[in-house]
């Protein structure tokens, strides 16, 4: 069973989002997603200052099984990326909600965060696909 933290919001494409305040949001892929993908070998994060649009692909996670697009859960501008992933992509597997974060977005509309799935909604999504 996948771990679904109660303080996060989720997209239906298995990205998690955490509010850091002041319109900044940290984004990663969920425990469920990393488990399906398997051992990560490379993470291609977006460039700082690049624009994101809800639902558009903005990063790629490559594992021993497959490469998978990562979609922007919010519209905005990338303000930080997790540089540790270039040398240690396995952090996404070992700590998807902590050291395995991918990037941070300065959101154009904080309301988009409220539109994401709450933990119960995300758990229901996972249950439907298992």
UniProtKB/TrEMBL annotation:
It comes from the Bacteria. Residues 24-106 form the Lipoyl-binding domain. Its cofactor is (R)-lipoate. PROSITE patterns: BIOTINYL_LIPOYL (PS50968). GO terms for cellular component: cytosol; glycine cleavage complex. The modification N6-lipoyllysine is found at residue 65. InterPro entries: Biotin_lipoyl (IPR000089), GCV_H (IPR002930), GCV_H/Fam206 (IPR033753), GCV_H_sub (IPR017453), Single_hybrid_motif (IPR011053). Keywords: Lipoyl. The keyword RNA-binding does not apply. It holds the Pfam family GCV_H. SUPFAM superfamilies: Single hybrid motif. PANTHER family: GLYCINE CLEAVAGE SYSTEM H PROTEIN (PTHR11715), GLYCINE CLEAVAGE SYSTEM H PROTEIN-RELATED (PTHR11715:SF3). The glycine cleavage system is composed of four proteins: P, T, L and H. The glycine cleavage system catalyzes the degradation of glycine. The H protein shuttles the methylamine group of glycine from the P protein to the T protein. Belongs to the GcvH family. This is Glycine cleavage system H protein. The gene is gcvH.
